[in-house]
Amino acid sequence: MILGRLAQGVALVLFVSFLAYVIVYHMGNPADVLASPNATAEDMARVVHDFGLDQPFLTQYFTFLKRVFSGDFGMSFIVGEPAMSVIAARFPATLELAISAVFIATIVGVPLGVLAGAYPEAPLSRLAINLSILGISVPLFWMGLLLIMIFAVWLGVVPAGGRGAVGTFLGIRSSLFTLDGLHHIILPASTLAISQTVLFFRLANAGTREALSSDYIKFARTKGVGERRILARHVLPNILIPLVTVGGLELGSVLVFAAVTETIFAWPGMGKLMIDSIGLLDRPVITAYLMLTVFIVIVVNLAVDLLNLWLDPRLRTRAR
């Protein structure tokens, strides 16, 4: 199973590398950005030659592919540093934003989903169901702007953008280790967590309802087991596997697709770097970002599969 996943990952890397390079190759002429506005035709030709842009497409692609497997994605056209180093400098900001969003979604969505599934007629359950419909219907960028207007502009309780101060703990630098950093991450993490919260809520709600209608729950009730114990010892472990699967996949998707939130809140992460690089036609950074996202998706999916094998003995039996 693991070898099959790895083989699929390698094939996916090759496919996406070609597809990404085809798309990036046709994104304008980087020489228009690299050369000065007063550059002559000779200057433009020299810039094109220095960056290898005058080579045939396949030659450029195979050069790029060879560098990819050696960890070299070329130099950024704008910054003049290795493209992967430029992205690596932004990765911690995106990672802490993604972890915060999934954490918020988990501690809010899962308990509400379990309670709504166990007590569907309660007023809080009905309110949560209605809010989940609203949360999945409203566009992310609009929700982010609305939260900025309410909490940053009108109430002034949190900053409207930026990452804030960065602290160090056990050699790890993160804005989560400072009060100012936590103050800054509240709005972007909450915005990014809305859709994940709705997903966790609906998944936990459906799983709880299905589990409560099963025979082993009815048998537990006939033995006099309390509702709280049933939810904690019987229902929650049975809905844990789909929650873990979705949680891992959502963490990967948030890491990859946080560009909109990072742009709205001026969060200095990989997504905002990608948007800026597209505007500046920085091909090495764009291709390096795309390849990194593919790698993240492959690693997260493999980790989720391994975790599910550990949690569910039936999957281990099938794998054997």
Structural class: mainly alpha
Number of helices: 14
Count the E strands.
2
Mean pLDDT: 84
Low-confidence spans: none
Shape: globular
- Classified by CATH, the class of the largest domain is Mainly Alpha
Within the CATH hierarchy, at the fold level, what is the topology of the largest domain?
MetI-like fold
Question: Architecture of the largest domain in CATH?
Answer: Orthogonal Bundle
Order of helices and strands: HHHHHHHEEHHHHHHH
How does this model look, in words?
It is a single chain. This protein is mostly helical. The chain has 2 domains: 68 residues; 237 residues, MetI-like fold, CATH 1.10.3720. It has a two-stranded antiparallel sheet with strand order 1-2. The mean pLDDT is 84.
Write the layout of secondary structure elements.
Blueprint: H1 2-25, H2 31-34, H3 41-50, H4 57-69, H5 83-118, H6 123-137, H7 140-154, E1 167-169, E2 172-174, H8 179-212, H9 215-222, H10 227-256, H11 259-264, H12 270-280, H13 283-311, H14 313-319
Antiparallel strand pairs: 1-2
Helix pairs in contact: 1-13, 5-6, 5-8, 5-10, 5-13, 6-8, 7-8, 8-10, 10-13, 12-13, 13-14
